[in-house]
Amino acid sequence: MRACLLALPFLLKGPPTIRDASAGASAIDGVKMSKVKDVKKVVLAYSGGLDTSIILKWLQTELGAEVVTFTADLGQGGELEPARRKAEMMGIKDIRVVDVREEFVSDFVFPMFRANTVYEGTYLLGTSIARPLISKHLVEIARETGADAIAHGATGKGNDQVRFELSAYALNPDIKVIAPWRDWSFKSRTDLMNFAEQHQIPVPKDKKGDAPFSVDANLLHSSSEGKVLEDPWVEPPEFVHQRTVSPMDAPDTVTEIEIEFLKGDPIALNGKKLSPATMLAALNDLGRDNGIGRLDLVENRFVGMKSRGVYETPGGTILIAAHRAIESITLDRGAAHLKDEFMPRYAELIYNGFWFAPERLMLQAMIDKSQEDVEGTVRLKLYKGNVIVTGRKSKKTLYSDALVTFEDDRGAYDQKDAAGFIRLNALRLRTLAARNRRG
């Protein structure tokens, strides 16, 4: 089942009952009681980091809510059990740590890559595409547990707050969303540190002061923003990069690989069948070792400001080059050009948080239709940050040796026909030129 159908179960089933909040109540730590008075249980998107740990305790102490934590294993790397242990230490009874790597790649990343999706010409949307999946699970868990609300740790300045909440409302129009960064009274990092120490929340030593930069990661990419990266003229320090070696330090030898596609999705690497998540992880390793996928970008956020970030998408950079290569011999010109025309709109929808919107689902249906015969094998060379396509083949190729050969084409194409074709297409241009000459 293609990803465009993911929203249907939520749209067909009735949403859970949400209690209305009473008006005119007093404020709790900057949040109006009228918004959260009746919230008894909250499902929190929990990473185990400092910020979401503070949010967890804030929900318990300031709202008096029972908290269910959801930690998604998106392939971000590192051990997730510390998040479970920290949640247990903070008194959480219902802790969900869920491996969603296969779902993430098969139902979100691959559908996006069928469109060759890039935002503003360069960004492969690694953060953007993970947010609707997290929201989907938050809403599901809220339904299962009878929770009144969900909560996330996105700030009020970024795109993620929009992505989380638009996705949640698309799946459950009555869900209540708590966004502490927009609501609480903390004014500074110092306030957060004081709250953490007051409630005995472990604070990593490198966060006692200002963190050098902020990192988000999943199986598709890693992103770094803030602090040492805020000046777009200053070159990013090498220590910022999480996923790749420097292209200058990559091996001086070429790595050659072959990727096999079926219906627009990669299914085998060097002849070995791989699951979606395993495929992306393997391409990440190849890209990492060859310095592939680094991007220093100033992007336009949906909320209106410009933001500088350093992104690394090693496997995705390889994949999009290979996918375009197999499309080049299997996809009709009109279909290929039409896809390229609406791709920026599709990318913008994902970037802005409209994964579950009807227009994205409509575009996805068109994209998936275009991929029915996109199958075959692509050969590539990886070398010092470069992805070089060296060959492509398919049983469903539209490439014809008989048509393109410079040798005797034995009647497959009569070159004299081109004269009439040119005359017809030149008619309006000649008419315009004649009028201009008279003028």
Strand content: 15-25%
How does the helix and strand content classify structurally? alpha/beta
Uncertain spans, ≥5 residues at pLDDT below 50? 1-34
Major sheet attributes: 5 strands, parallel
What is the CATH class designation of the largest domain? Alpha Beta
Please tell me how large the radius of gyration is: 26 Å
What's the rounded overall pLDDT mean?
Answer: 89
Helix content: 25-40%
CATH superfamily of the largest domain: HUPs
Strand arrangement in the largest pleated sheet: 5-4-3-6-7
CATH topology grouping of the largest domain: Rossmann fold
Number of strands: 16
Our count of helices gives 15
The CATH architecture of the largest domain can be named as: 3-Layer(aba) Sandwich
How many domains? The number is: 3
What would the keywords be for this entry?
439 residues; alpha/beta; Rossmann fold; Argininosuccinate synthetase, chain A, domain 2; 3 domains; 5-stranded parallel sheet; 15 helices
